Amino acid sequence: MSDRKRLTRLEVVAQRPLAGDWLTIERQTLINHYDDGTQSAPFAADSAHRPGVDAVAVLPWRRVGPGPDGVQVHLLQVLRPGVALRARLQPPVVDDGPDRPMLWELPAGIPEADEQGEAGLRRCGAREVFEETGLTVAAAALVRLGAGTYPSGGILAELLHLYAVEVAPDAPAAPPAGDGTPFEVPGDQRWWGLTEALAACEAGVIADSKTEIALHRLARRLG
C-alpha cells in the first residue's frame, strides 16, 4: 500500500473568468485538501473551456477489400492557427511537418446546447460528419471507440468523445457545407488506407493526437 496522502477535495478560494468570443479562461486560486487532514498552500491555476465544453470526434471508415489493407478511413485538413504561430514562441523543437499549419484530422466538433447525453453526442457527431465530409450517416450508427479522453487536462476542461462509423464503399458524398469559419478552408480531404494512416502518424504526416488515438482504437476493434 502506498503511504502517500491522497487528495480528498479541491477548494476554489477565488475565481475570475476572462470571457472571450470563443474561449473562457478562468484564473483560479486553489487549495488541495488531503486525507490526513492537511492542506496545501494556496496556489494559482488557469483553466479554460469553450461553449459546449466537450467535443465529439468521429472516424468514418469503409471496407473496400479483405484484411487490414482493405479498410479505409476518411480524414480532412483543418487550419490550426496555434500550430502556425508556434515559431513566434521560439519552441525547443521546430515542427516542419508537411502541410503545416493544416493538420489531417477526423471530423470533430462541439455539441450544441440541445445535444446532451449519449444520444445528443451521437447527433452532434453525425452532424459534424455531414458538415465536414458531405457523408450522411445515422446518429444511431455511431460506435464508441472506448472512453473519452482529456486532450489537455492540465488546462482544458474538455472531454473528447471518440466514435467510429462505417459507411458503404459506394456511399455518395455531397459537397461539404463546412461550418462557415475560415478554419475549414481551403483544406483537402480524402480516404486513407488504415495501415497507411497509422504509418503517417509515425512519420508526422498526421500529427493530430485525437486522430491517432481513434485510428489505433479502430484498428484494435477491427482486429
How is this fold's topology laid out?
Elements: E1 7-19, E2 24-34, E3 43-49, E4 55-63, E5 71-79, H1 81-84, E6 102-105, E7 108-109, H2 117-133, E8 143-144, E9 160-166, E10 189-193, H3 194-203, H4 209-222
Parallel strand pairs: 4-9
Antiparallel strand pairs: 1-2, 2-3, 4-5, 4-7, 5-6, 5-10, 8-9
Helix pairs in contact: 3-4
3D structure, described in words:
The chain is 20% helix and 31% strand. The protein is α+β, with helices and mostly antiparallel strands and 223 residues long. The chain folds into two domains: 7-49, no CATH class; 55-222, Nucleoside Triphosphate Pyrophosphohydrolase (Alpha-Beta Complex). Strands 4, 5, 6, 7, 8, 9 and 10 form a seven-stranded mixed β-sheet that branches. Helix 3 (194-203) runs antiparallel to helix 4 (209-222).
Give me the secondary-structure category. alpha+beta
Beta-strand fraction estimate: 25-35%
For the largest beta-sheet, the strand count, sense and barrel status come to: 7 strands, mixed
CATH architecture of the largest domain: Alpha-Beta Complex
Task: Specify the overall morphology.
Answer: globular
Beta-strand segment tally: 10
> Mean pLDDT across all residues, rounded?
90
- CATH class (first level) name of the largest domain: Alpha Beta
Cα separation of the termini = 37 Å
CATH homologous superfamily of the largest domain?
Answer: Nucleoside Triphosphate Pyrophosphohydrolase
How would you summarize this macromolecular structure in one to three sentences?
With 223 residues, the protein is an alpha+beta fold. It is built from four helices and ten strands. Helix 3 (194-203) runs antiparallel to helix 4 (209-222).
